[in-house]
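If you are new to this repository, start here. Below is one unmodified record pulled from the training split, so you can see the exact layout before writing a loader.
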Amino acid sequence: MLRIKASKTFAYPMRHILLLFFFTLVGLALHGQTNGFGSWNVLHLRYPLNRKWTLFTEGQIRSLRFYSNFHYHEWTGGVIYRPNRQVTLTLAIGDYDTYREGGSFVKPKNNDELRIWPQLTFIQEIGRVRLEHRYRSEQRFTLNGFRLRFRSRVGVQVPLNTKEMKVGTVFVSASNELFFTDKPAYFERNRLLLLCGKRFSDALTAHIGYVHQFDYRINDETGRDFLQVALQYELKKR
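And here is the target side for that same chain:
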C-alpha cells in the first residue's frame, strides 16, 4: 500500500496547487476589470469569553467592478455558543445597505435593511477533511416591508500541508449555499465559494478566493462574480 507522508514530498505538489490557484485568481481579476468582476471584502473579529461562548462582529464592503462601483456594505454583531465540537449556535443582528448601480454608493438606496438571524451549524470531521452544514433563518426589515429568508449551506475544508488546522496551515475550502423565501417562487439565490487561505497565527487567518452567485428577482444585492479577500482576527483576553 502506497502512503504519502505530509513532509517535503507533499510540499511540492501543494506549492503547485497554490501557484495554479493564485494565477487563476489573477487571471480572473484582470479579465474582470472589463467584464464586471467585482470585489468582496470581509473583516471578521472574534472575542472568546470562554470555551463555549464567543462574541463577534463582521464588516463587509462589495463592488460590482474590480475595486470600483462600490454598491454594498454591511455590519453584523452577535454571539456564538458552541456546546461541543460538532455543533455551533449563533444569534446575530446587522445592518445591510445596497446602493444603485452606476458608481460608488449611488443614492437613493435599493435597500436599507435591519436583519436578525439565528443560525445552526453542524460540523463533521473525516480524517483531515472538515464538512460543514449550516442553516440560517433571517428576519429582514427592509424598505419594502418585513421578509423571511432561509439559507442552507454545505461546505468542505481541507488543510494541505498539515493533518489538522494549526498555525502555518494552508487550506482550501469550497461551499455552496441556497437561499429560499416563504413566498413564490421560493428560490431566491445560489452562491458558490472557492477559497484558499492560511492560518498565520493563533489570532489571524486570511483567505482569498472566487465567489459566483445567481440571483432570481432580487434587489438587495446584485452581481455575479467576485474576488473575495477576508481577514479573521481573534482578540485575546489580557
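Two things worth knowing about this chain: The longest helix spans residues 8-32. Residues 1-12 have pLDDT under 50 and may be disordered.
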